[in-house]
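We emphasize that the prediction below concerns an isolated chain of 467 residues; any contacts that depend on oligomerization or on bound cofactors are therefore not represented. The input was used exactly as deposited, without trimming of termini.
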Amino acid sequence: MKIKFCGAARTVTGSSHLLSLDDGFKILMDCGLYQGHKDEYDDFNKAWEFDPASIDVLILSHAHIDHSGRIPKLVNDGFKGQIICTHATRDLCAIMLLDSAYIQERDADYENRRAYRKGKPKVEPLYAVEDIPNTMRHFVAIDYNKPFKIRDDVELRFLDAGHILGSATVNLKINVAHRGDVHIGFTGDLGRPNRPILNDPVPMIQADYLISESTYGGRFHDQAPHESERLLSIIQRTCVDHKGKLIIPSFSVGRTQEIVYMLDKLESAGSLPKIPVYVDSPLAVNATEVFRAHPECFDAEIHRYMLQDANPFGFNRLHYIRKVEESKKINHSKEPAIIISASGMAQAGRIKHHLYNNIENPQNTILMVGYCAPQTIGGRLRAGAKTIRMFGEEKMVKAKVEIMDSFSAHGDHNEMLAFLEKQDRKTLRKLFLVHGDIERQKDFALALKAKGFDRIEIPVLGQEYKI
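Result of the prediction step, given as a C-alpha cell string:
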C-alpha cells in the first residue's frame, strides 16, 4: 500500500490524502480547497496530484471547505464513486458547496471584468452552482461508530472528532494478504474537550499508520472559563462605552453557532447589553437550521439548557440576515451593533465589506475568534498589520483588533497531544503530521517525541510513502 499527500502538506488548507491499496483500489481522504493568497491557490485548486477518474471512493472527515471544497471539481473531472461521510456532514455540504460554487462564480465574474479592461483572456470558475446537485448524488451518509464495508476487505468506522457538527475521525481496517488487518487512521480536524454544543472528541481506534492534523502545534488556547466574561467586556467597551461596532469574522459553521449560543446564554442571564446582534451570512443562517436538525450531535450541557430555552440559537435582538439589501443597511449604519459575518479568515464574503467600511474607525473592534492562514486578511489582522488592502484600496487599521482563541474549534498543542497519547507507541508504526504550518509541525513533533512517538514524518506536497 501507499499513502500520497495531496494537500494540507506543511500548510493548513486543501486537505487531501490518497491511499492506494496493493490491487490499485484508491481511497481519497478529504478533497479540500486551498484557501489563501490567490497566486498560490490557483495552481493547486486547478491541478490534481492524481487522476480524479481513478479514485474509487472518497471519505470525507467533515464539511469545512478546506476539506470538502474541491469535491464538485473532482466529480466534474471524472470521479464516479461514493462520497462517504456522516449524516450531518452531508447536510452541511449541501449548503456549503452551493455557497462555495456561488463564490467561485462571483470571483470569476469579478476577475473577468478586470481582465476585459486589461485585454486579458477570460477565466472560468472552478465549478458552478449547477454542478452541485450532481455532486450531492454521490454522497452516502453513515452513523458514528457503525462499521461500514467499503468492500469485503476494507471496513470504515467514523468516530466523533468534536470539531464541527458531523466531524469525524476516519478509522480504516484493511485486510492485506500475508499481513492480516492493517489499521489506518486519519484525525481530520480534532476538536476540543469541554466545549459548548458538541460532544467531546472520541478516542480513535488503535492505528498502525496515523495521519494527524497539527494546526496548533506549539500554540495554546485561552481557557473556556473566562471567555464569556471577556466577550462581555469587549462588547461593553466597544458598543456601550465607545458606541461602536463589534465585528466578528466567523466561520459560518460551528464558530458562528457557538458565539450565538454564548450570546443567547448571556441574554437569558440578563447580562447582554441591549444592542442589536446580526448574523450576516446566508450560509450561517442555513447552517444554523442544519444544527437544529441534528441534536444527536449535541452534548449534555446544551440539552439541559434547551429544557429552559428551546431555541439556543435565537433571542429577540438577534437578527439573521439573508438579503444583500439588509446587509448593506447594517454595513453603513452608524449605530452600535454586534456583526457576526463570514468568512472566518475574512478572505471572502460579506465580512470584507463590513471590514472595508468600518476598519478605519477607532470606535470599532474587530474580534478574531479562530485560526487564519497567515496570507489571508484575517491572518494579517491577527499579526498586527497596520494597513489592509481590500477591493483595490489600502485601508488603515484604526479599529482595535482583539483575539480570542478560546473559541477555536481546533484542539491546541496540549489537547492534540492528550488525544494522540491514547495511541500505543509500540503498535503505531508511522505518524504523519499534516494540516499545519511547518514551524507548528516541528514544535508538535518535538513534543510527540518527548512522549515516546519516535516514527514521525512531516510530508511535503506530493510525497508518497510505502506502508
